[in-house]
Design brief:
The complex is a heterodimer of chains A (about 375) and B (about 260). Chain A is of the alpha/beta class. Chain A is built from 14 helices and nine strands. In chain A, strands 1-2-3-4-5-6-7-8 form an eight-stranded parallel barrel, surrounded by six helices. The chains are: A alpha/beta (about 375), B alpha/beta (about 260). Bound molecules: iron/sulfur cluster.
């Protein structure tokens, strides 16, 4: 991965004619991505949006997938300075038992969700491979697909989880800015930048169907993060051509610990990043979660994103008990699945709740 | 600079050595082309004889010698040839050709993949000749091929790049160099391959049977360079989005939420 600052330099050098070229280019590469993310492209936002809209329609049609997260535990051994779950924060800690987790998932099932994302703070002592394996085995016959967003695991662990019915792994680098990464992750296993960066490789190597990557927006220069994401995606695609990839765009939300974002990423910036990545990789899944507010999510429908979360709670046990504290961040869009589906339909799109079937996965058939 | 299996090449034109009127003309054409990679049919040369007509012309200090298995009808035959070649010359490079149909000389995808897997395990640097099938290219890459060599059109036909659509996908996806092989009948075809982003082209018939092979070798050298330069300069693409008559229609209102 090239040095973060070389991305910044490359971005600064882009001209408006580079942007126009990138917009016309049939097969944009990293050079074109830098033009699309550069300050020179700021005033081309409508053109970027139009291209992104056309490509999204061409590759994904009029559909938007929906999913919901299940927070399993907010225990964490790391001290990421920006996160409500950081070990330094005094919050109500809770880890769901397998029964409790199953109950939470069941609530989502009854609400209509068929794709769920199992999320936890990073603590091997609380949520380990066996826990996830057992939970997956309990849930995989009910749900079309199970994804995880937990601590980076070993290849062997991913192999076990894949066999148990987990089909997708999301792991965000948070920031690709190596220097800043050190500062933001002062303690815990997460300090190891390279181990985290190589996580998608380990997960893809065992056959996971989808790998999600992302950068937490508000930490470093978002344009350079976009470059690094594009580069990371490209290099993964070259090695794992049978894997689907997705990118998330989490913007920092207010959370316990009261961390103030280090850089501002406004809605225009966020849109530019989404459009640029869509143009760069017309086939990548682009996810916008309920961190963002309703107006933005509605506005972006059909322009680039392909998957939304809905009706999310970010506290472990939060679906069964909405009064619970201990959430990772506060949600920006509180609408339920039916409400979200109605909005998607009203825009002429199909809200897709099931887009996978466990029978694809030999290992989960007993 | 092109790198294949840690060897760098400044010329992106590879030459085949069949069909020349004499080894003297072949030598001059090789020299005029500026190539650094020369392929030779194993069935044509006597590897252990330094006075062999063809071998004596290919100075191993100047050229990477890429023996090919042309004539092999299945993986077993190709592997046997490859082992013999390595035993005689110590050379690990191999252009793998498995062509069971002597009429079309089209490569057998299944046998090519099998042979690639086995030969890579044996330590060969394998460059498989293949149909322009994007998934096969990825399978060969996964099997450890050092480059892939999709055909532009059937060998010796001079029809140019009829498989452009698939070669574009191969180039887009490949993690190893893509060398367009077979069917390149004119310098413009070679330039086209390079403009598309191919890493190199392999030419034989078009040069060997030209009235003046040496001049033609020079013409190909220039075409390859021109095509590559154009590719690096970033050509305006044949736009795929221009058909939308007004792509910005309504988009500004669509963005009013920002
Ligand atoms: S970002 Fe993840 S690893 Fe860091 S403190 Fe929060 S939950 Fe733990």
């Amino acid at each position: 991965m090239p040095d973060f600052f070389s991305w910044q330099n490359q971005l600064e050098r882009c001209s408006e004619s580079d942007v126009m070229h990138a917009l016309e280019c049939a097969k944009p590469g990293i050079g074109e991505l830098s033009a699309l993310l550069s300050p020179a492209a700021d005033r081309f936002l409508p053109q970027l949006a139009a291209r992104s809209r056309d490509l999204t329609l061409q590759r994904f049609g009029r559909t938007t997938q929906l999913y919901a997260p299940v927070y399993l535990s907010n225990f964490c051994t790391n001290r990421c300075v920006y996160c409500g779950f950081s070990a330094t924060n005094k919050i109500d800690r809770k880890a769901l038992t397998l029964d409790e987790a199953e109950k939470e998932a069941e609530i989502l099932y009854r609400r209509g969700f068929r794709h769920i994302l199992l999320v936890s703070g990073e603590s091997d002592a609380i949520i380990d491979v066996s826990y996830l394996e057992n939970l997956a085995k309990r849930l995989c016959s009910r749900f079309a697909s199970l994804s995880i967003e937990v601590q980076p695991l070993s290849t062997e662990a991913y192999r076990r989880l894949f066999a148990a019915g987990i089909t997708a792994v999301a792991v965000y680098q948070e920031t690709y800015d190596r220097e800043l990464y050190k500062e933001l992750h002062p303690a815990g296993k997460k300090r190891d930048y390279d181990f985290r960066l190589d996580t998608p490789d380990r997960a893809a190597a065992v056959g996971m169907r989808e790998i999600g990557i992302g950068a937490l927006l508000g930490l470093s220069n978002w344009r350079a993060e976009g470059m690094a994401l594009g580069y990371h995606l490209n290099s993964l695609r070259r090695r794992f051509w049978q894997t689907n990839f997705s990118v998330s765009f989490p913007r920092l939300r207010p959370a316990a610990g009261a961390f103030a974002p280090l850089t501002e990423v406004n809605l225009k910036n966020l849109s530019q990043l989404i459009f640029a990545l869509r143009i760069f990789d017309p086939d990548v899944g682009l996810i916008v979660s309920t961190r963002e507010e309703a107006a933005f999510r509605d506005g972006m429908l059909g322009l680039g994103p392909t998957r939304y979360s809905a009706g999310s709670s970010t506290a472990p046990g939060g679906y069964g008990n909405p009064e619970l504290n201990g959430e990772q961040f506060s949600v920006g869009d509180h609408r339920s699945l039916p409400e979200m589906a109605a909005v998607i339909r009203s825009k002429g799109f199909d809200p897709v709740c099931k887009d996978w079937d466990a029978s694809f996965q030999e290992s989960t058939l007993s | 600079m092109l790198t294949i299996a840690e060897t760098s090449f400044s010329s992106r034109l590879f030459l085949g050595t069949g069909k020349f009127a004499s080894s003297k003309i072949m030598e001059q054409a090789i020299s005029a082309s500026g190539t650094e990679m020369v392929t030779v049919a194993l069935r044509r040369v006597d590897l252990s004889n330094p006075n062999d007509d063809i071998m004596s012309v290919i100075d191993p200090r100047k050229y990477t010698f890429l023996p090919n298995t042309s004539g092999a009808r299945n993986s077993d035959e190709a592997i046997r040839l490859a082992r013999l070649a390595r035993a005689a010359s110590g050379n690990r490079w191999l252009k793998l050709e498995v062509t069971p149909d002597p009429r079309t000389l089209l490569p057998d995808p299944v046998e090519t993949l099998v042979a690639t897997e086995k030969l890579v395990k044996e330590g060969f640097i394998v460059l498989p000749y293949m149909n322009a099938d994007p998934i096969l290219a990825l399978r060969l890459q996964d099997a450890g091929a050092a480059a892939v060599m999709p055909l532009g059109s059937p060998i010796g036909t001079n029809q140019g790049i009829l498989t452009a659509f698939q070669i574009e996908i191969i180039i887009e996806q490949a993690g190893v160099p893509v060398v367009v092989d077979a069917g390149i009948g004119a310098p413009s075809h070679a330039a086209q391959a390079m403009e598309m982003g191919a890493d190199a082209v392999l030419v034989n018939t078009a040069i060997a049977i030209a009235r003046d092979p040496i001049a033609m070798a020079g013409a190909f050298a220039k075409a390859v360079e021109a095509g590559r330069t154009a590719y690096e300069a970033g050509m305006g693409a044949k736009s795929t989005n221009a058909q939308a008559s007004s792509p910005l229609q309504g988009i500004s209102e669509d963005l009013s939420f920002l």
